Amino acid sequence: MFVSALLLLSDNLNTINTINPLDFLAAILVPLLLFAMTAQAMAPPEIPPLAVSSSSLSSCSSRSTGSTFLPLSPIPSNTRAATTSTNIHLVILIHGWLGSPAEMTAIQAALQTQIQIMAAEDTPDTSSDTPDTQNGPINNDIQLPPDTSVLLHSVECNDGKTHDGIIMGGCRVAQEVNDIVQEILLQDGPKKISLSFIGNSLGGLYARAALPHIQWTVNIDNNDNQQQAETIQISPNVFCTTCTPHLGKRGLTYLPLPRFVETGIGYALQPTGQDLFGVTTVVQDLASQAKYLTPLSHFAKRIAYANAFGTDLQVPTATAGFLADTESPHFLAPPSSEQEQDEESSSPFLLTVTTPPDDQVVQQTMEASDIAAQQDMTYYFPATSMARTLDALGWTKVFCDVRDKLVSVPIPFNRKGKDGTDDCSSEFDTHSTKQWTSHQLKNKLANRIDYDQKWPIPIGHTMLIANSKSKLYAKLNRGGLEFVQHMAHDFLKDLLIVPTCMNMTTGKDEPSS
């Protein structure tokens, strides 16, 4: 990492007379921050990561058939409450690298508060100092339908095990999800189950890697009544990620790094780092192979939250929002109602855009990937191709401005842009334009823009989700609670009002419960 700092500095020696002091400072500090993160990752973790074994890989592969046969067994004593409803919306929360289930405490608490409001229960006491009460719940007119429950579960399987690669983590997530679904189906009565994900950071890639191994069709054998086995279809509903490196980190670090430095960091961060920095093909496989793209395309809605304006050191805007130098169209998402328009005026989100589905682009990508696999070819799928394919699935992208929530360093000089304007006062206009290309959004949102004559330190990665994996994290990230409350409100609205959910067996839409 020190080598990268020297390289960055040497690149600027020829223009030392015109270099901006802030850029000069960033060229020194950012590689050092990355080095510190690498050193932390190289230190022995509190819980040793699981070794990748052939048995664990085969166990994961055995779950990719899409259908399983479950005998009806006694209800476990630890079965979670509210599973007696006929219609179940199961929401899986997945933490990120070096994280734990506690990382998702704030979003889980915000979701639970909104669920209670929609169920017409008494508004919870907001006097306690808990993550969900620092910013009040957002009232809305959406009611939880009768005989319907929303179950929240924060995965535990990857706690202390985020070093052994994206695929292994995804397999463990799939196993835990399948076990939860089985637990739900062991309750009496028929069930209609929808499955949704909220993956934070690496957790979003874990969710994508888990999809081929989810048991979307489950057969239940009711031995007690000697009845024919009942088939239950699990419907994919909402797929949501926050600050997830969808394009990996290769060529997408906060400041450009030489390829050999990226490779070194990848090896230092063990298999997960090798996946993220493109030493392996895992990230490009997730964005090109049919076994990953097809189930992802079946979700009723896909949402990606990303930090804008260079406030995320770990996962910059371009990879979190999969923005690249392509012409993929992005349209300003209009409010769907007068009430939503009023809510938008107080929304903390900077910009919400949608990408239209393009089945032809997705199909061409999957066919090219299949040909390469059949011919045992090693191929490189660049970030532009990954971004174009993901856009073609149809996404809602929400870009967030957390600059006013971050610790900032005063700038003792007037920073001027290339056009002579004051960068410190430069903002992104979300009203005069209704459509952009991916390339245009990348240029506007992925660059660092100063705020109020200050340079925000780029620690927005944990701020957006109000990461609460420790008391210190909870205090440092309290500023993100406003985003979390709106995120929970919008997620549940999508969860309950999406018009259809996909039947994973037939590939056809069916009414959502």
TrEMBL record:
InterPro entries: AB_hydrolase_fold, DUF676_lipase-like, Lipase-like. Pfam families: DUF676 (PF05057). Gene3D superfamilies: alpha/beta hydrolase (3.40.50.1820). Residues 146-309 form the DUF676 domain. Residues 328-347 are annotated as: Disordered. PANTHER family: LIPASE ROG1-RELATED, LIPASE ROG1-RELATED-RELATED. This is Serine esterase (DUF676). The lineage of its organism: Eukaryota, Sar, Stramenopiles, Ochrophyta, Bacillariophyta.
